[in-house]
Structure prediction request, 165 residues.
Amino acid sequence: MNSIFHRISVRKYQDKMVEREKILHILKAGMQAPSACNQQPWEFYVVTDREKIAALAAVSPYSGCAAGAPVVLVPVYRKHGLIAPGYAQIDMAIAQENIWLETDALGLGGVWFGIAPMRERMDAVHQILELPGDVEVFSMFALGYPAESRAQQDRYDEGRIHFIE
Prediction:
């Protein structure tokens, strides 16, 4: 639970590769997420190719900092064979949060870039990575060893809690 209160968006990274074992552990955490009807719609692309990362960094006006990351994860979801396809993006968001929390727990940092539901961004990532036609791009997540540190913002607001008794 500590990562929930520690995790921040990290946009600057050390020039140090992330170990494959840590990447796999992070993705295992993502796959532990619950999903509608246990459909587990996810697949994950791990991008370490510098040219591909540079192209991905240009997909959104907010993703430029990905260019300095040693790894960009691209979670995608299957379009076919899902029991509850309308919940696929919700399932993906839960998996992405698990990924972020485990990234922090391992002493790494990352930042989540929203791609879906923006069709032009989804299509751009799809094209850059030459993904199969039966998947949709959900997000991008740049990660690495942090080259920046700061305290997490306290977002607790008791005024947003309402008891109905």
